[in-house]
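Note to self: keep these together.
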Amino acid sequence: MIGEDGESYLLVTTPTLYNVINNDSYVRRGTLNMSSNSPDFELFAFTFGIYDTGP
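Structure:
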C-alpha cells in the first residue's frame, strides 16, 4: 500500500509469512527499513535470494 506521503506500507494482520518485496528484476543494492506502531510486533526470520532462471 502506498500512503499519502509516498511511502510504502505493509499491513500485518495475522501471524504468517509475508512476501515483503516482489521484484521481477535483480536489485543489487537497496535498503529496507521496517518499524511498527505495535508493542506486540516481532520479526523472526528474513530470507534473501535470487533465482537466475526463475523459481
